[in-house]
Amino acid sequence: MSDSRPRKSLAGRTPRLGVLHIASEVAPWAKTGGLADVVGALPLALDALGHRVTTVLPLYRGMALPGAEIRPLEITLGTRRWRGSLHVLAQGARRRVVGVDVPDWYDRDGLYARGGRDHPDNAERFAGLAHAALDFAQHDVDGGRIDIVHAHDWQAGLVPALIRQQPARWTRVARAGLVMTIHNLAYQGLFPKDVVSRLGLGWDMFTLAVGEFWDQLSYLKCGIASSDMVTTVSPAYALETVQPECGFGFDGVLRAVGDRYVGILNGIDTSVWDPASDAFLTAHYSADDLTGKRQNKRALLDLFGLPVGDDALARPVIGIVSRLVDQKGCDLVLAATEQLMQLDATWVVLGSGDSHYETAFKILAGRFPSRMGVRIGFDEGVAHLIEAGADLFLMPSRFEPCGLNQMYSLRYGTVPVVRAVGGLDDTVRGYAPRARRANGFKFRDATPEALLRTVRQALRIYHRTDPWAALMREGMSEDHSWGPSAREYVKVYRQARYAAALRWAE
Questions:
Q1: Range of the domain at 50
Q2: Is the CB of residue 349 less than 8 Å from the CB of residue 361?
Q3: Helix (H) or strand (E) holding 104
Q4: Residue 456 and residue 383 share a domain
Q5: Is-contact 14 494, C-beta < 8 A?
Q6: Which tens digit of pLDDT belongs to each residue from 31-53?
Q7: Which of 147, 203, 283, 465 is the most buried (most CB within 10 A)?
Q8: Is the pTM above the cut of 0.70?
Q9: 480-489 residue pLDDT tens
Q10: Which of 183, 207, 227 is the endpoint of a domain?
Q11: Alpha helices in 428-481 (DSSP H)
């Protein structure tokens, strides 16, 4: 169930492919999490390999694509019709982005929810995204051949199912290889079964073999069942999600996919995340010259209103940039608060999420004003400065499909302390006295005691100059760019094309 499992070898060179991506968010235009970073960066890496890529996403409130060509759009779902437009922006000879502008669906606060509640018409909004992407592909006759349709997460899950259900309607993608990527299995796009008739989907989609899940329609299951290849965002997460403990009820669905389910580790955008050129930093630095890291540490402490004297600079700073939710292990941090605050360390926290976690961290900052700084919300510049100015970065996730912050941390010489799950386990090699090529610290048990024990170990090593420098430089020397990951996706695309050819030959 990981990318290391043998798959059929296809002879010859990989041809230049035409790839259509569909996603609900894409950086830098719309972002709530790692999905946007992935779908923003992967097309760039595929373009660099010579492939043609078009990415389709909703045009949300406040989002604009200056210079885009405007094309009319009309979508019918069931008995209702919506009008809007497509904004087609060329980003080079081989790469485009397409914004789906339907104000009734997307001109509102929140991509998926408002005030903590999902938008009640999310079934329509993202069925509409699927139809818009496929209609665009069908009529975009000057855009070249489409070899691969790549859908991301539940919001695009109907795309492969609609292609399989209505090949005569979307002939330009009917024979394409279909790929579905699961970025986070916890979100499954579950809706009451009456949406099938309401959206005109066809009841053959509401079967156990396709989209029916406990008497609901799952957009994610539709995508998994209808795709030629299914991927997720790290090898370890692929292995975890076929087990009941981490499968969120989909473990059986994924086991049925067999060796067509592949884990590919995400990359990071190394042009944006580079301590030698990062525009958000006070000073630049590299593995060969780390002096600028201390200047960023001072700036970080000052930004959070924490002491910046020599004693404070000598004390390790532990950073957290996270959604403040159960998944990220916030409860483990708070359960160990009294012991953690007694350690000789300073803490900086940036994030937002569940109100009780936001309140708890603000209370902590008030109790320990010289040891903890907290900012509720998200600020890209502050996130970069935390990665550069902190000495350690804490990610005690209960589950983590891939994680990007630990890879940012490694690149910035900020040693990660993580729970050994998903992509965290794939990317962080835990320190031990005789461990070779260690780059961080990790623990397996989801307990406050395990977290505390590992943080204490990391702080002990921090005060040992040579081992700590070795950890920093090991992380900074690694290649977590999108190049290797993009080449793995191309392998999956070839497998998907081969599977699609077999489907049509039957």
A1: 18-227
A2: yes
A3: helix 103-106
A4: yes
A5: yes
A6: 887 899 899 999 999 999 999 99
A7: 147
A8: yes
A9: 999 999 999 9
A10: 227
A11: 448-462, 465-476
